[in-house]
Amino acid sequence: MSSDRPTMTSAEHRISEPEPNTAGLVPITPGTRRRVVGATFIGNFVEWFDYAVYGYLASTIAVTFFPPGNETAQLLSAWGVFAVSFLIRPIGGFVWGWIGDRYGRKTALSWSILIMSLATLCIGLLPTYEAIGMIAPLLLLLIRVIQGFSAAGEYAGASAFLVEYAPRGKRGRYASVVPASTASGLLFGLLFVTVLTGVLGQPTISEWAWRIPFWLAGPLGIIGLYIRMRLEDTPAFAELAEKDDVVRAPWRELFVDNWRVLLQTFGAALLNAVAFYVLLSYMPNYLETQLNLSVTEANVMTSISLITYIGFIVITGGLSDRLGRKKVLLSASVTMFVLAIPAFMLLDEGFFIGTFVLVIMGATLTLNDGVLPSYLSEQFPTKIRYSGFAVSFNTANALFGGSAAFVATLLISWTGSTLAPAWMLMVAAAIAFVSVMMSKETSHQALRT
């Protein structure tokens, strides 16, 4: 076993099942774990920068790629494309899960970042609606679907990768690197768009400069791919391969032997699916279009919220190592349910109060998101871990995450109430609470084999 294995707690001593040979075929050193964390962070950062830029430029993309005449219809069309790209994610979850469980986590993660970067670069090269008419939004939709397919393998694969490298007792902290790097990619994308707009001005952004963040995907993707290709696959997967115990078709074991766990993890992922995209991706557009804040004010407020989110995320992951996954996840659902309506009511009370509210909501979200990667990974055995995580997480995001901005915009249009997103958060929090309550505590147990 690795020399840096932590001292077992009293809870761990009560587990009769011995910890699996997480060292696999190659001893794990602290340096190896640092490289794994760094490579996972950078790769995930690149993927989610690529994926998020679309959301932050949604207003510009709306007028660039869709027929003029009705601004609400244009914006709904842009968010509709964003939502449709998520519908491919369950299919992507099956494909990437099969690749990751059959051929290794490293293989799946390397291909996912390559496909994402190429697709994002292509968005920056697309002609506009004015140039080629309805072909423009169709091409945009096609590329967004490719992006959605790629993203389906990223979050699940990166989480499984870190959990399988982490020592028991620190899996929550290690896996929390995934949402931290995701939020860092979002933050960098938002800051990049904000600075670009401030330097060049909105007219130039609308004319051509919106393409620059998409062009940046090329060199960033090459860097991320190079770093990932230098990693060894996880010890847990290497051990399965050595024993010739790699599952050929994970779907039967997933849907026949683990269907209850699959439903529970789907429900547990709903709060992340809705809240992450409402609070961290849709929010700048909401503040700008619904509360009439300037682009700069909206972006700065969301940036501060993202910084808070990143700062707290690793803390909450580590907290779940001590208190248990269920306690922290349940506290997230309860807090989000209670705060949602008051928070959205206060967003319209000025820049400073609105910023404070977003900071509180971002911190609340970390109670869920900092724990979810380790929680979902621990629910499934090693041979179908990638598939189980990818299918449950991506299905939740496909049905409720990608559509969050579209549904929020539509509900506000129908009801005339800017509180519609808050009701969405409350429903998601309630479902997540029930799902987590029904699941097993896994933080102090050995990974299922």
Give your account of this protein's structure.
Keywords: Cell membrane, Membrane, Symport, Transmembrane, Transmembrane helix, Transport. Residues 1-24 are annotated as: Disordered. It is found in: Cell membrane. With 449 residues, the chain is mainly alpha-helical. It has helices at 10-13, 30-56, 58-65, 71-87, 89-102, 105-123, 129-132, 135-165, 171-175, 177-200, 202-207, 212-215, 217-229, 235-242, 250-257, 259-268, 270-280, 283-289, 295-323, 325-346, 351-369, 372-379, 385-401, 404-415, 420-438. It has a single domain (30-232, 258-438), classed as Growth Hormone, Chain: A (Up-down Bundle), CATH 1.20.1250.20. The chain has 25 helices and no strands. Helix 2 runs antiparallel to helix 8, helix 6 runs antiparallel to helix 8 and helix 17 runs antiparallel to helix 25 (420-438).
* Overall mean pLDDT: 86
When the domains are counted, the total is 1
Under CATH, the topology is which? Growth Hormone, Chain: A
Please give the largest β-sheet.
none
What is the general shape? globular
Q: Would you state the CATH class?
A: Mainly Alpha
Number of helices: 25
Strand content: under 5%
| Secondary structural class | mainly alpha
CATH homologous superfamily annotation:
MFS general substrate transporter like domains
